[in-house]
Write a structure and sequence with these properties.
This protein is an alpha+beta fold. It has 24 helices and 17 strands.
Length: 644
């Protein structure tokens, strides 16, 4: 696990090596060493966090034995031992014990399609000195980041924006479209970024460029929606559950491969609980478990449940308590660590766990992230499946709903939906009609994010505060990342999962998780995102849908007898920090950063509305408070990352 950065030039010329000052911007991602490779075409940089093969043989950028290939690589190929054996059978000779050398040999043997064989998390750039071309690749789910900026003469890349910006010829401007997306989602959905001319190589994509094909676009090699081999229809439930159980255990075993200690981030829920049980089963000594709590141990504090499970497994337990003042005071530093403005209020908690692990000398941390996304852990996501399938089967409902979009009718339907004494059927149909009648949702899209908490709140507020730079935005702008096109009835569950993976999971959960863990030089691994496990689950449900069985039905049933019953029966709680206290503290302390900041300067915010934004809007309701918080975070991010 490391930091990578560099420049690829369209035309050859003598180049100066990358400066130490630029490499130092990624030192937190790789405190164990750094290296640079330079020739007339490329400048490749690397900062190393030693996880596999701790010797100097694993130093990067690494040059192949025949001197043809050079690679700078961030991540881990968990199945590198199996791939190494396969390549050795073909005559390949290895001189190190690192997965980096295996990655290079895999590219030499199988070309661009080598990524289809990898199980792991990765972002890499391989330079072919003979063909004068570069392959950029990113793992299927996007666990590891890769930012790129391409001009007619040069492509710059880096693991983080704070390292990419200094490589550019000039400071990029803010993208109005991306700012608008951010204020709806609380993050910027990839491949977009807030900076004009800067993008992410999307998850599950590769990019092959050369001087002769400089304008080549990224190519998708994997999508969770497209399962290659669906399992047989009518397969027995026990066969399905057994396959899932074995798939999870196999993924956990792979993610335990490391030459350094491995710990686990543990809550009281089923996802991390399952990982803990299976990881300790295959780990040779007591693992370190880290859990978060809050002063006074409120009802949502899960330390008791986490400690009970960890102790039953013989783990060593570490508790982290998060006072409100700690978050408020740490806010500017946290924004810099996050590298992108991600307004998830849980960010501080997610940072505190790897920080505690680092303090104990733990370099690798297992996490249950991904369990909610692949096993229907969010009620609004299963609701999206139900509503979209209903409208596909009953298209006449759409016609009726289109006449119910006026504000008075919408308000009436919302009241009926929430009125506890209304008949159940009345509440059910009022909710459906209100959703279908919402005029913000594009008519040609599956209904999705308007069912999510907070997404729709920005529509009303932004009209009150936007400046001239936002006047040309299209009404459908926030929905661009979910424009997948139409789907047949049976295709809707997979399409909904895809939207969740390609937005919330990769751009919120994984981006945040990567930055806060790498900010303290800890690698986070997520067994639920093992590509073979994901393909197995999607193949099982292709002909045997499970979205109507209840929250995490397959996961609970598959782990029966493996994970304690009290853990399996526990309802989803999610990470629940004292959000109002944290956010109100930030708004009170830092709101003045908006008064003369970049958001006003470039016309994103109306200068005449700053007093309203800083003082009145946060006092109006939660929607106003959270919107102001997102603006403060955005402005602070610009000052810390772009203008620094």
């Amino acid at each position: 696990m490391c930091g990578i950065l560099g420049l690829i030039h369209r035309n050859p010329a003598q180049r100066a090596p990358l400066a130490d000052a630029v490499l130092n911007r990624l030192a937190h991602r790789g405190p164990d060493g750094h290296g640079v490779y330079t020739d007339d075409w490329v400048q490749l940089g690397h900062t190393r966090l030693s996880i596999i093969d701790l010797s100097s043989a694993g130093t990067q950028p690494m040059i192949s034995r025949d001197a043809r290939y050079v690679v700078t690589f961030n991540g881990e190929i968990y199945n590198y031992l199996e791939l190494k054996a396969e390549l050795e059978a073909q005559g390949e000779i290895f001189s190190t014990h690192s997965d980096t050398e295996v990655l290079m040999a895999a590219y030499a043997a199988w070309g661009r399609d080598c990524v289809l064989r990898f199980r792991g998390q990765f972002a890499f750039v391989i330079w072919d000195r003979q063909e004068k071309c570069a392959l950029l690749g990113r793992d299927p789910c996007g666990e590891k980041p890769l930012f790129i900026s391409r001009t007619p003469g040069c492509l710059a890349f880096a693991s983080e924006l704070k390292a990419l910006v200094p490589l550019l010829d000039s400071r990029p401007s803010l993208s109005a479209e991306a700012v608008d997306m951010y204020l709806h989602y609380q993050y910027v959905p990839e491949p977009y970024t807030l900076l004009c001319g800067v993008h992410k190589l999307a998850a599950g994509h590769t990019l092959l460029i050369s001087a002769q094909d400089w304008d080549a676009g990224p190519r998708q090699y994997w999508s969770i929606e497209n399962v290659r081999e669906p399992r047989p229809a009518g397969e027995s439930t026990e066969t399905t559950l057994s396959a899932i159980r074995n798939g999870i255990e196999d993924a956990v075993k792979l993610t335990l491969r490391a030459d350094v200690p491995v710990g686990i981030a543990l809550s009281g829920g089923i996802d991390s609980g399952a990982i803990a049980v299976l990881a300790q089963k295959h780990y040779p000594e007591p693992m370190h478990a880290f859990c978060v709590g809050y002063p006074g141990r409120p009802a949502y504090d899960e330390r008791h449940q986490a400690r009970a499970l960890a102790k039953s497994l013989g783990m060593i337990v570490h508790e982290v308590e998060l006072p409100v003042d700690s978050f408020v005071d740490f806010f500017p530093q946290l924004v810099r660590i996050m590298d992108e403005p991600i307004a998830d209020p849980a960010a501080f908690g997610h940072y505190s766990v790897p920080k505690a692990a680092a303090d104990q000398g733990i370099k690798v941390l297992l996490s249950g992230i991904g369990g909610d996304e692949i096993f229907w852990g969010y009620h609004w996501v299963t609701k999206a499946v139900r509503l979209n399938q209903l409208i596909r089967r009953q298209p006449w409902l759409w016609g009726i709903a289109q006449g119910l979009g006026s504000a008075p009718v919408q308000n009436f339907l919302l009241k009926v939906t929430s009125y506890p004494h209304a008949p159940a059927q009345a509440r059910y149909w009022a909710d459906i009609l209100q959703r279908f009648a919402d005029r913000n949702n594009p008519a040609d899209q599956l209904m999705f994010y308007l069912l999510a908490y907070d997404f729709g709140d920005a529509f009303a507020v932004k009209r009150e505060v936007y400046g001239a730079a936002m006047s040309g935005l299209r009404p459908e702008n926030p929905f661009v990342p979910t424009a997948l096109g139409p789907r047949e009835y049976q295709q809707i569950p997979a399409a909904v999962i895809r939207m969740l993976f390609e937005t919330w999971l990769v751009s919120n959960c994984l981006s945040l998780g990567d930055r806060v863990s790498m900010g303290v030089s800890v690698e986070t691994r997520m067994p639920f995102l093992d590509v073979r496990l994901l393909e197995l689950v999607m193949a099982c449900r292709a002909n045997n849908p499970d979205d109507g069985l209840g929250q995490k039905a397959w996961l609970r049933a598959a782990l029966k007898g493996v994970v304690p019953d009290e853990v399996l029966a526990r309802p989803k709680a999610g990470f629940q920090p004292p959000v109002r206290e944290w956010i109100s503290g930030v708004v009170e302390k830092y709101s003045d950063v908006l008064r003369h900041g970049q958001l006003v300067e470039c016309g994103i915010l109306d200068k005449s509305k700053i007093d309203f934004i800083c003082r009145q809007l946060p006092q109006r309701d939660w929607i106003g408070m959270y919107f102001t918080y997102k603006l403060i975070l955005l402005e602070t991010w610009y000052q810390e990352i772009v203008a620094a």
